[in-house]
Amino acid sequence: MGVTPPFPAILPVVRGRPLLGSAPEMVTTRLRPFLTRNYQKYGPVYGISAVGMRFVVLAGPEANLFVTKEGHKVLRSEEAWRQNDIEMGARRSMISLDGELHRKYRRVESRAYSRSYFGENLRAALEVTAEDLTPVHAGDTFRVPYWSKRVITEQLARMTVGGTARPYLEDMLTFVQTTLMVTTTKQLPKVMLLQPKVRRAKARIFKMVDDLIAQHRANPAEAAGRAPNLIDDVLAAEKTDPELWQHEDIRIAALGSFIAGMDTAANSLSFLLYRMHKHKEYLPKLRAEADALFAAGPPSAEALGRSPLLHTFVMETLRVHPIAPAMSRTLTTEVEFAGHRLPARTNVIVGTTVSHGLDQFYPNPDQFDPARFGPERAEHRKPGAYAPFGLGAHTCAGSGMAEGLIMLNAAAILHTLELELDPSYQFKEIARPTPSPADDLALRVVGVRHPVSSLFEA
Ligand code: HEM
């Protein structure tokens, strides 16, 4: 981050703790309630400081509408993500770019993250789910966060880069989580990147991706008679614009689905599994939907999206447990927002999910209630009310893939297993760096409802 201009004179400023400022509240598990409390106290714009850094928060529906309309003209992503590129050995990546270059990268990379691409590769994703459900038996303990990470990471590997992440799961988690916690959320000191296990993980992951890139070069999709994936798309772009795509940039692009999608989608799936079994009155209906989905073999992506209760459950889970509660940006120019003039170079935090906790949109917002998203109430439809996938130019490029994977895995679990949450379990969240249920979240396998093979049988 660059030098932060002083706060404008009349801006309300949150009083933080001595030296630390509001840093302890900026951990991702505490950020949304903190930004929401201060939105309710000060309105849509206020200042906060954290260990000597100043940020201006733009929050609530006002901020969401402002970013949607004006964000591409006045907000820059580079400062927030540059350190991550450097640590990943790249010159640039989709998320750290702005303007025309960002649009170019996004055009190339987003096809392999899209809903339709997910639909074309659904069977490959379901094969991974099946592999990881097969060893589960009645009486076992189903470790929710571990199972979700293992399955989603492998699904992303097979679908987006045509490889396997099985031998690299621990390396992938160690490298990506530590790097993001140092460079992006800044909750760990830089020295953590020097730990031997992080350096070893980085070397192994880079080798895995470099080998995949080499294999794709040697066997282009068309010649090999297979459908192109993310690496093929990037290599095709390199051919037309070699200066834009040097090896390091291709490598970070190939790692993109893991950096952006592994923890985000897995943690959301874990929250969903927790919610489905905590609010167990919904389970009979959820199981009936899942059984109908698999009645004639694997469902289509469209059928998954049309499952009314499962879909609203996912939406409500993303409202209550958004894994990216806010976005970090820099103002490229002076702007006027909610009656305040903010100078160029101001570090802003856009509290995109503050609206998720406001009574004006979601009556009784702390209550988990999937019916909010049903056609009668559609509480999320009001402008600026719902943004679990961010807003503006950098809105999640993988939202279609994420929703598809989360719903597919949840439906397959509902169809095959009867799981139960211990009623005495005390739910805890951790920030690594995105919010996740704590590692001890587990469900008891009461029984097997249908064999895993039934996921594929017509
Ligand atoms: C429920 C799961 C997910 C959530 C809630 C989520 C949320 C987000 C958010 C909020 C952003 C914007 C970050 C910012 O502006 O600073 C983002 C960006 C992005 N996400 Fe996701 N994400 C999820 C899963 C995924 C998956 C599975 C993929 C890919 C396989 C993915 C790929 C991306 C990419 C490539 C970007 C950068 C887009 C750009 O810079 O233009 N995400 N995501």
From TrEMBL:
The record ties this protein, via PROSITE patterns, to: CYTOCHROME_P450
Q: Does the keyword Transmembrane helix apply?
A: no
Keywords in alphabetical order, please: Heme, Iron, Metal-binding, Monooxygenase, Oxidoreductase
Cross-referenced InterPro entries, in alphabetical order? Cyt_P450 (IPR001128), Cyt_P450_CS (IPR017972), Cyt_P450_E_grp-I (IPR002401), Cyt_P450_sf (IPR036396), Cytochrome_P450_Monoox (IPR050196)
Record's PANTHER family?
BIFUNCTIONAL ALBAFLAVENONE MONOOXYGENASE_TERPENE SYNTHASE, CYTOCHROME P450 FAMILY 4
Provide the family line.
Belongs to the cytochrome P450 family.
Return the protein name: Cytochrome P450 120
